[in-house]
Amino acid sequence: MLKLTWSLIFLFLIYIAEAQEKPLTESEKAALDSMLNDDMFMDMMNTALNPKSYFLVSAGIGNSYFSIRNRQVNAMQLESKLVLTPSAAYYHKSGFGIIASAFHAAFESKSGFYQFSASPSYSFTKSKKVKSVISYTHIFTRSGFERYASPVKNELYGNIYLKKPWLQPGVSIGFSGGRETDYRKVDTVLNGIRRVFTDTVKSRISIFSINAFVQHSFEFYELLSKKDGLAITPQLMLNAGSQRYRETHQNPFLTRLQSTNITRFKNLGRLNETSTFNIQSVGLNLNVNYMVGKFGFEPQAYLDYYIPSTTDKKFTVVCSFVVSYNF
Question: 3 in the Ramachandran plot: left (φ > 0), alpha (ψ -120 to 50) or beta?
């Protein structure tokens, strides 16, 4: 917004000069004509005063698949998977938006589009003091890819931050959850006899996350042309939350053991993991957005360090790169 600010100041000075009935010099006239003919300048003015509706198509590649928006949830992934994500979105000038995405990846013995998502959202942008966004996402799992898709099926996510301070403080809150049923063929040998049966695996996950953050956006215009701009936004985050995960296995072998009077077999095939609400990690998110004309290029990297003691890795890197076109 640096260029817009100085341009408005310049126009205001010209207006004062006219009010005082002082003639414009040739150089002032040339500068004014140049600004009025500068498409990027006029676009900035129109966007600031009259927000526009637009469509956006994009293609992204990254290593996250748990959550669409919540980086804290993505940092919980135990493995890194390269995912290609084409998307189409519509954003209305009122603040309403909706985005549809497909997710493609290669797995153990198959590859393809394994899940799809729809995410309506609303942005509160008219306030001069704060900015806020709230969104809901539902994930549809493709049949046959249940064991590979994200366990999160529904997600409510929102954030709010102050716009005026140079260092902008804010907070984000997310509720994520889902359940899935997978049928796995088991071919094994028990007591010297080959056994082939179907194991029904039911899983359920619920995650509550909240984080406090501070950020600042560094903006630059006319770097390579008169119609480009660059925004670099580092964001430091303190993450807290709680999780609960349940998994049950149902098959003839487990049913037979559970029906006995042996105590240690009663909970066989059941997994129940719960973590109480606590501070979980510190994170650093770096978002870079380069716009030239109607094209956008957005690399993003999120670094997360898990604070509590764990046998899993404590340091996680989630990154992505998105190319977009708006019309």
Answer: alpha
